[in-house]
Amino acid sequence: MAVRISCNFDSGSIEVVSAASPDAIRLRLRADNASDFYQWFHFRVHDAAGTDLRMVFENAAGAAFPDGWPGYRAVASYDRRHWFRVDDTRYENGALIVAHRPERDIVYYAYFEPYAQERHLDLLGRAANSPFAKVYSLGSTVEGREVDVVQAGRPEGVPVWIVARQHPGETMAEWFAEGLLERLLDAADPMARRIREHACVYIVPNINPDGAVHGNLRTNAAGANLNREWRSPSAERSPEVLHVRNRMERTGCALFLDIHGDESIPYVFIDGSEMVPGVSAATVAQQAVFLDSLAEASPDFQTTVGYTPGRYGDEMLSLASKWVAHRFDCVSLTLEMPFKDNALLPDPLTGWNGARSKRLGAAMLQPILKHLSVG
After folding, report:
1. Among candidate residues 301, 293, 287, the one with its CA nearest the CA of residue 359
2. Are 296 and 302 in contact (CB under 8 A)?
3. Which residue numbers in the chain have pLDDT < 50?
4. What CA–CA distance (Å, rounded) separates 301 from 267?
5. Residues 361 and 175 sit within 8 Å (Cβ to Cβ)
6. Which CATH architecture has domain 117-374?
7. Sequence spans of domains, the chain
8. What are the distances in angstroms from CA 44 to CA 75, 81, 225?
9. Strand, coil or helix: what is 119?
10. Which of 4, 61, 273, 329 could form a disulfide with 94 if both were Cys (CB 3.0 to 4.6 A apart)?
């Protein structure tokens, strides 16, 4: 019995080699639309209820981050709202193998819980309706989509910038932004109120909407890795970064957060800017206070496991958080969340997911307020 598989929808991505039999489905991970990066997948299987599926992703060894496969479990959903982990996911002999017996005829599989463009527009709509925020476009992407920013607080307040989803496949970043925004715009939340009184917060929930729609892992529609474009962005290759940088030059920046996901490390962690040329001892001290405050606000966060110090060479100042730290001498951080699970507080059903990302986003208000009081 042949199996029908489709991916012609928002962020859909897969190549079907063979689906002649449900227990021998052969797949290939599809590369970003204009680059060789690949790891993201999102597709739908039809008429699958009660059928034993065995899906082999044959080119997994050549993915952007093959170290991310060991210990990874794919996510699945019947309604695109509730996602769960597929326990029988394994990496063997260079192939990712997912075995599952769906309970419903239609089932979706993805690398991580997707964040749809329609949900993105709904988030912007809710923010635009808030009395505490306004939404406007910073400019257009390569393909003409808008790079929207939500501005909340006093225009003359301390400038705080938060950018999510430079890498479009890291959808947990926009889930994080949604959680942060919902709390920041909550009229009944005293922490949010204090931040709005003292700061002007600029949140870009999705700086790479072209890549998100295409189902890209890491690049925009022109094939640019936006988190390597900050030193010299161009209107042709990386207008998304150029728009944000231009506005940031006008507003200034006293705190910058760049929100990401990490394929390999099963922890929530932050990569700081203490190694960046020109960053003062006072800023490094403020960074330490910020990290301590985030650890108090969320047990999901830790400071023991993270990236190796000094991992960036000449490309350092092309990264968002490093360029901002160098340009403004402010606390400027890259937050990473896991594609797998958080080894500190594992959840066998969902692993790390959208809801947990939202909770972490909401918890971020505590260190932001602490920074405003000590900065």
Report:
1. 301
2. no
3. none
4. 7
5. yes
6. 3-Layer(aba) Sandwich (3.40)
7. 5-110, 117-374
8. 12, 14, 27
9. helix
10. 61
Q: Do residues 38 and 64 lie in contact, with contact meaning Cβ atoms separated by under 8 Å?
A: yes
CB atoms within 10 A of CB 259: 30
Centroid of chain to Cα 125: 20
Distance of alpha carbon 156 from alpha carbon 153, whole angstroms: 9
d(CA 149, CA 136) in angstroms, rounded, equals 6
**Extended beta strands in 95-180, E state:** 95-100, 107-110, 133-140, 146-153, 158-164
* CA–CA gap between residue 332 and residue 323 (Å, rounded): 9
Please give the C-alpha separations between residue 321 and each of 64, 103, 146, 227, 364, in angstroms, as whole numbers: 22, 44, 22, 9, 17
Q: Kindly list the distances between the CA atom of residue 132 and the CA atoms of 67, 199, 250, 267, in Å, as whole numbers in the listed order.
A: 43, 12, 21, 33
Predicted structure pTM score? 0.98
What fold does the segment set 5-110 form as a domain? Immunoglobulin-like (2.60.40)
Model confidence over 296-349: pLDDT tens digits? 999 999 999 999 877 888 899 999 999 999 999 999 999 999 999 999 999 999
Q: How far apart are alpha carbons 69 and 60 in whole angstroms?
A: 8
Region of 351 please: left (phi>0), alpha (psi -120 to 50) or beta.
Answer: left
With CA atoms as reference, report the closest residue to 19 among 40, 49, 45.
45
Question: What is the spatial distance between Cα 281 and Cα 260, in angstroms, rounded to a whole number?
Answer: 26
- At 275, is the secondary structure helix, strand, or coil? coil
Q: C-alpha angle with apex 214: 35 to 221, nearest 5 degrees?
A: 50
Torsion on CA atoms 338, 262, 38, 219, rounded to nearest 10: 120
26: left (phi over 0), alpha (psi -120 to 50) or beta: beta
Q: What tokens does 164 get?
A: 């999510």
- Give the separation between CA 29 and CA 40, rounded to whole angstroms: 7
The residues carrying an active-site annotation are: 336
Angle at 336 between CA 298 and CA 357, to 5 degrees: 50
Residue type present at position 205: P
Specify the pLDDT at position 314.
82
Tokens linked to 272: 């700081």
Q: Residues 159, 237, 119, 77: what is their CA dihedral angle, to the nearest 10 degrees?
A: -130
